[in-house]
Structure formats: structure tokens, C-alpha cells
Amino acid sequence: MSQQTASTHPESQIPDSGAKDIVLAFSGGLDTSFCVPYLQERGWAVHTVFADTGGVDDEERAFIEQRAAELGVASHVTVDGGPAIWSGFVKPFVWAGEGYQGQYPLLVSDRYLIVEAALKRAAELGTKAIAHGCTGMGNDQVRFDLAVKALGDYEIVAPIREIQKEHTEVRAYEQQYLEQRGFGVRAKQKAYTINENLLGLTMSGGEIDRWQAPGEGAVGWCKPRAQWPSEPLSVKLSFENGEAVALNGEKIEGHKLLAKLNGLFAQYGVGRGLYTGDTTIGLKGRIIFEAPGLIALLTAHRALEEAVLSKQQNRFKPDVARKWVELVYEGFFHDPLKADLEAFLASSQSTVNGEVTLESNGGTVNAVAIESRHILNAKGATYAQAADWGVAEAEGFIKLFGMSSTLWAEINRKS
Known about the structure:
Blueprint: E1 2-6, E2 20-25, H1 30-40, E3 44-52, H2 58-70, E4 75-80, H3 82-96, H4 110-125, E5 129-131, H5 140-151, E6 155-157, H6 159-163, H7 170-180, E7 193-197, E8 200-204, H8 206-209, E9 233-240, E10 243-247, E11 250-251, H9 254-266, E12 272-278, E13 284-290, H10 292-308, H11 311-329, H12 336-348, E14 354-362, E15 364-371, H13 391-401, H14 403-412
Parallel strand pairs: 2-3, 2-5, 3-4, 5-6
Antiparallel strand pairs: 1-4, 7-8, 8-13, 9-10, 9-14, 10-11, 12-13, 14-15
Helix pairs in contact: 1-7, 4-5, 9-10, 11-12
């Protein structure tokens, strides 16, 4: 990740008292805001890092920097996470082509890139102390901690997990804690918990957690049916070695391409799903997810891949993909097996070159045309239309191909 902008308040408003430096992954929300004074009161000089992986506008980005300054952090930096999330996650995820448990497109995988941004800042400061605002109730703590442990010998401090030892109403306690110290709490209470980044949006809480139908307020990026445009959407994606490199003939950086696809296909309600899955910590998790750009990418890539890979590649690759997805979902982003699987995935993409036209009339997206010099066309035959072999060859193939099954039937057939 490359540093994009530094805060206009890079220096602490608190005099240097010899406190130890710690880097906090910071979003400006209640949890990470609480972490700042909590850590300061325990002798830490807190340096905040906001890894911008999409999902925030300029106004929100400015608020996050202002919030860090208001809390009196020792320094704050904002990092552009777009290029890293494309190369580190989107490329291999699209190569894999599978959602977790066949559905969920791993929309919180930006957590691993946030860790890398925090550790880079720690190296700049010469500290081995890292903090995060994950609770002890969810998957993110596993992803964060395992990623940190895989990348070095660090001290991990998790204030929200700490206060859960003594307080059951954690968020109420955090709000009171901040207000008692003169820090306002933004009135941003919602019926749902929403996470947004370049990959997409997830939504939980309310009736979703109660296994009921989502209410009218459970809306994100994707437009409802009544608002879909009347004209169909058609776009053309170009791929080189399995990576999308151009949109409608225009070369564009991967993370910017994904952002454009999000905007285009969200208007047609593409990529929205209601999903129940087995979480890392053992509970059932139920969420709404919206990933219009990723679903469009997956659709185009799979259509091209199915046309250019061999039968055996297309049969075997989903097994590799499912394991890769499980590793990423459960926190093993830096496990050596993941790198091994990615070596196979990369190798499989050498002929995944060409252009795919996607079309949507709303709700779904289809790959309607494929152009590639690698399509496995037989020169003298077309499925169910024409063949360049004879009847005897077909009958001989069927006889040999089905011999084992036929023999079993002959020997065990009841007379």
C-alpha cells in the first residue's frame, strides 16, 4: 500500500511524555474512537492509520482525519488501499471464481490490507505494537490477529475485547466513556450494521439477525426493481492472463475499473444476495451483501474461462478455489497453502485472454458474447450440430466409455 495523504494534524496535541508508540487501525467510528483515549490512559502514544479501501467519500475521509486530531493522536495518516486490494485480493479471487460456501464474495477481505498498512506505519515509527477495534464476537478479530502474527513478532492490543471482560453492553459503555472525557459521539445510529469498501457492502442487524425478511430500510447500493433503468446495460470487459484490464475498450487500473462496475451494475440491482453462512467462530451469520462489480467480474471471467480451459482444468479448478476461499475467509491469508494454491491459479490463467460482453436487464447479469483466439473450437465439429467422425466411431466410443456400467447391469440384471 502506498501512502496517499497525511493528516493536517500529524503531530500530537499531547506533550511528549515518553509514552510507547502504538499504531491503531482507525476508521473514526465508535469502536476505534474509543480505543484512542483508552490506549492513551494506559501509557500509549497512539498513531492512527486509516486505510481507504473504498466506501467513503471525501467528506467522510475529512471527518476521519478531523476525528483523529480531536482525539489527540500522536499522528494520523490516510493510505490509498485501492491498488493493494485489487492485486492482493481481487485478482486471485476472480481467478478462483468461487464465493464462500458457494455464495458470499468475501467482502471484508480488505481487513488484510488494512493490517499491512498498519504494519508499514509501525515500521516507520520503529514500534512493534499494533491495536485494533475488533470485538471478541466476530470474525474480524481472527483475520486481524492471524495476519499480524504471520507478518512478524508484534504486540497486539484489542481494547474492545478487553472491556468485554467486564461489560456486557459494550457499545453503551464506549459511548459513555467518550462522553465523560468530552468527546462527542456522532449521531449515526442505524437499524443495521453496514460495512462498505471497494469490494461491496454487507448489512446485518434488525430483522436480518432475527431470520426474518429484510425490511424496506435494508437498502444499500443496489437499486430496487422499481428504479431499474428501462434500457438494458451492455459493457465489454477485456482480460489478459485472467485479469480485467479494460472496460469498453478503455485501459483502466483494476481498482478504478471495479469502482466503475460497482456504479454501473448497482443501478440494475445486480449482485445483491441474502446469505447465511458458517462463521469462523462457530456461529451462524446472516447478512445481506451487495457486490455489483465483483459479480459482474466473476460472470465475465467464468464465461471466458469455461471457453478456453480444458475439460480437466474446468473440473479440477473449483476444488482449488473452494480451499483458497476458505483460507481467506477464516484468517489464513498468509498461510503457505494459500500461496501454493495461487501458483496453480496463476498458471491456469495463461490462456484466459479475450473480451466478454456482459448484459443486464436488471437483477442478474449474463455473459452474452465471448471473443478469444484461445476458444477450444473443433474445426470440423459443433456440438449437436455437425461432426467430422462417423457413426461407427461414435458407437465404439459409447461402448468402451460405458463398458464398466454396462457389464454390471448385464451381470446383475434380474431375470
